[in-house]
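Exercise 7b. Backbone tokens:
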């Protein structure tokens, strides 16, 4: 049984649906925001149909799942980071995401089954307590009753053309970014994403535990959505320490799908390597990719971006992880999991082939991939020279080994 089938499904009152439908028809530059309630509510296909029917661009927030296909010409990525095709956004319809800031001056419709999240962060012009799937259906029907097929077709083609041209530009920019750093070592995050996309199954399951900036550079290359790769994570709370165990659970639940756990060296060091035991013991044939930049890049960026003392002195206190330089393939080996250290793009291409072969034979494989330090002062190796043994007075005064307290 699918757990989604036992969730309550309820609809909003007709007045709200009609109001939203009118706003959508009148808007010059509407945007849809999608969140996890779309995937949880099994409304992915209905969401695609509605966006296509109206030619409305779609943004993904609350990045827990991929709720809209990333390769769709109407898909814009995160709302926060996007500039929009020429006309300023004048209407946002949020389908089941817990969003923060949105454009000032734009009307906001928020549809959710969670009454507590509606209007919690920002002002909402039209709060709708409803299951997203019912609201999408009702909205689509209401639009048919308000506008002629001819006018709908004209609106759709104008909007679709503008967004399609824009997303084509975004794709081209990504391609240029990839080519620009194509052969560099340590590798660009883009190159890792590109190589993974080339060899992974079209319907692989990806469990990423990656920060938003560099992480999105990898994930941006992986085609995700209802008919492509299934993505689970990062969690909406962003806490580290769950990715490997969650990936193992997903592999157990979906033994016929290729499973890829992608996590940072910082993330895996949050007490996760014990999951290797279960992965090995129960033959989970999954790929584990550690994006190893010997750094907590996300916190480094946060610590330095305000330009305070750590930035001015060039001494960032907490984020350098390269002392000791952990080789995660050796930790995996301790659990009888094969793996290797990857330093160059050629290593990655060959390593992925060995990984796929091992997975086909029913065993897990780990790639510890050295990637570019991708943040402000990312190549700094400075860290406080702190040693507990140096703190001890007994060692210093020579009384350590004489048995006296
Ligand atoms: C339990 C927990 N503690 C601390 C943090 C703060 N934090 C956010 S990102 C990050 C560093 C992650 O490092 P890594 O996984 O190597 O990824 P990178 O930032 O280098 O891409 C930390 C410590 C957190 N998110 N969760």
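Sequence design result:
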């Amino acid at each position: 049984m699918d757990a989604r089938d036992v969730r309550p499904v309820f609809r909003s009152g007709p007045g709200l649906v009609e109001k939203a439908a009118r706003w959508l028809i009148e808007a010059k530059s509407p945007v849809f925001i999608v969140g996890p309630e779309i995937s949880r509510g099994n409304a992915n296909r209905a969401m695609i149909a509605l966006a296509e029917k109206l030619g409305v661009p779609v943004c993904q927030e609350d990045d827990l799942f991929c709720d809209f296909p990333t390769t769709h010409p109407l898909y814009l990525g995160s709302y926060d980071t996007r500039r929009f095709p020429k006309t300023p956004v004048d209407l946002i319809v949020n389908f089941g995401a817990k969003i923060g800031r949105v454009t000032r001056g734009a009307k906001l419709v928020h549809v959710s089954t969670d009454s507590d999240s509606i209007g919690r962060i920002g002002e909402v012009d039209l709060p709708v307590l409803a299951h997203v799937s019912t609201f999408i259906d009702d909205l689509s029907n209401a639009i048919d009753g308000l506008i002629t097929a001819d006018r709908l077709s004209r609106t759709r083609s104008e909007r679709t053309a503008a967004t399609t041209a824009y997303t084509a530009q975004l794709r081209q920019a990504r391609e240029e970014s990839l080519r620009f750093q194509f052969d560099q070592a340590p590798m660009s995050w883009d190159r890792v994403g590109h190589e993974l996309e080339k060899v992974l199954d079209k319907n692989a399951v990806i469990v990423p535990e990656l920060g938003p900036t560099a992480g999105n550079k990898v994930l941006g290359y992986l085609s995700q959505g209802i008919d492509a790769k299934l993505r689970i994570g990062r969690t909406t709370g962003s806490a580290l320490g769950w990715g490997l165990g969650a990936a193992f659970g997903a592999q157990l639940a979906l033994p016929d799908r290729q499973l890829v756990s992608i996590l940072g060296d910082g993330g895996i060091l949050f007490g996760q390597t014990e999951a290797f035991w279960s992965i090995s013991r129960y033959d989970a044939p999954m790929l584990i990719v550690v994006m190893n930049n010997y750094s907590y890049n996300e916190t480094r960026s946060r610590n330095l971006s305000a330009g305070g003392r750590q930035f001015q002195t060039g001494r960032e206190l907490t984020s350098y992880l390269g002392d000791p330089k952990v080789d995660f393939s050796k930790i995996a080996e301790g659990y009888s999991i094969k793996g290797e250290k990857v330093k160059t793009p050629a290593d990655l291409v060959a390593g992925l082939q060995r990984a796929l072969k091992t997975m086909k034979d029913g065993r897990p494989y780990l790639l510890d991939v050295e990637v570019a330090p991708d943040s402000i002062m990312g190549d700094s190796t400075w860290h406080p020279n702190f040693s507990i043994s140096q703190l001890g007075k007994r060692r210093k005064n020579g009384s350590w080994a004489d048995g006296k307290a």
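Instructor comment: DSSP finds 16 helices and twelve strands in the chain. The pocket of thiamine diphosphate is lined by residues 211, 214, 238-241, 264-267, 270, 293, 295-299 (CB under 6 Å).
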